[in-house]
Design goal:
The chain folds into two domains: about 10-35 and about 120-305, Multidrug efflux transporter AcrB transmembrane domain (Multidrug efflux transporter AcrB transmembrane fold, Up-down Bundle); about 40-115, Alpha-Beta Plaits (2-Layer Sandwich), CATH 3.30.70. The chain is α+β, with helices and mostly antiparallel strands. The protein has nine helices and four strands; from the N terminus they run ααβαββαβααααα.
């Protein structure tokens, strides 16, 4: 089966643009809820013996305590996690007593921790460094590996189009998490950041596989039509890309449905991000290289005419 990816590239651009705009809108409107891993604060997790009280009941029972903004998250069928500003041991015990007045708590199920804001800032800084190094490494690798293709398109263009595809793969799942944060109180945690770093690696790898095939076909010089070379390269790697993503998604779906509440949003971030990564490597990254090539060609033609 041969599909004309270049011919329909504008349709794929439009689909991605709509998804990215909607995702950015949800991020700006709803915001992203950072967990105490990043902002600092206190976390209390308890497991009730029976049906847990509603969030509204818990909120009312905690009125009068100096807790700042309180966020709630359901963990499993009977578990509740409360996150507040950093509290003392005395205040922690008061919270626990008020929760016990709402329902019987499983003995030994309580989990409490304080995370200072300094640790939270350190987590943020480390995440930024990892992202920066990943992008810098990608640009350097692509610039060196694709330097022989400069007669068609400069090697750094491959790097920039890969970064555009990467942003696409990160923004869309972030938009979904922003909506879930508003509707279900989902927070950006360390495991979710780990999921996004995994998406980084997967997306870069998938895109470079397609670019590698473009390089091979350009160097073979089977045709002077650069658009045809890109289209053939995408079709040649299509089966590999789809088989890989399906294999990964089967495992992730099993984790999502059977891995419990703690792994649910970690696996969901991976499912959305890796699906977007597969889509962008096929429909966005390589076609963008061709779009730049055509733009440069038209500009050179116009300059010659002048």
């Amino acid at each position: 089966m041969y599909f004309p990816f270049i011919k329909y590239r504008r349709i794929f651009y439009l689909i991605s643009a709509i998804l990215v705009v909607l995702s950015l809108a949800s991020i700006f409107v709803f915001g992203l809820k950072g967990s105490i891993d990043f902002s600092g604060g206190s976390s209390l997790e308890v497991l009730f013996k029976n049906e847990p009280p509603s969030f509204e009941e818990i909120r009312k029972s905690l009125e009068g305590l100096d807790l700042g903004e309180i966020s709630f998250q359901k963990t499993g069928e009977r578990g509740i996690t409360l996150r507040t500003k950093e509290v003392s041991e005395e205040l922690h015990q008061q919270i626990l007593e008020r929760l016990k007045s709402l329902g019987e708590i499983e003995e030994g199920s309580e989990s409490f921790q304080n995370i200072g804001s300094l640790i939270g800032r350190e987590m943020k800084n480390k995440t930024k460094v990892v992202i920066f190094l990943s992008l810098a490494g990608l640009l350097i690798y692509v610039a060196v590996s694709f330097r022989k293709l400069s007669r068609t398109v400069k090697s750094y263009i491959y790097g920039f189009t890969a970064i555009i595809a990467l942003c696409h793969d990160i923004i869309i799942p972030l938009g979904v998490l922003a909506v879930l944060g508003r509707l279900k109180g989902v927070e950006i945690t360390i495991p979710i950041i780990t999921a996004f770093l995994t998406v980084f690696g997967y997306s870069i790898n998938d895109t470079v596989v397609v670019y590698d095939r473009i390089r091979e076909n350009v160097l073979k010089r089977k045709t002077s039509d650069f658009g045809m070379v890109i289209e053939q390269s995408i079709n040649q790697t299509l089966t590999r890309s789809i088989n890989t993503v399906l294999t990964v998604l089967i495992s992730l779906l099993a984790i999502f449905f059977f891995g419990g509440e703690t792994l649910r949003y970690f696996s969901l971030s991976l499912i959305i991000g890796i699906s977007c990564g597969c889509y962008s490597s096929i429909f966005i990254a390589a076609p963008l290289v061709f779009t730049y090539y055509k733009f440069r060609e038209k500009r050179q033609k116009k300059n010659r005419q002048e």
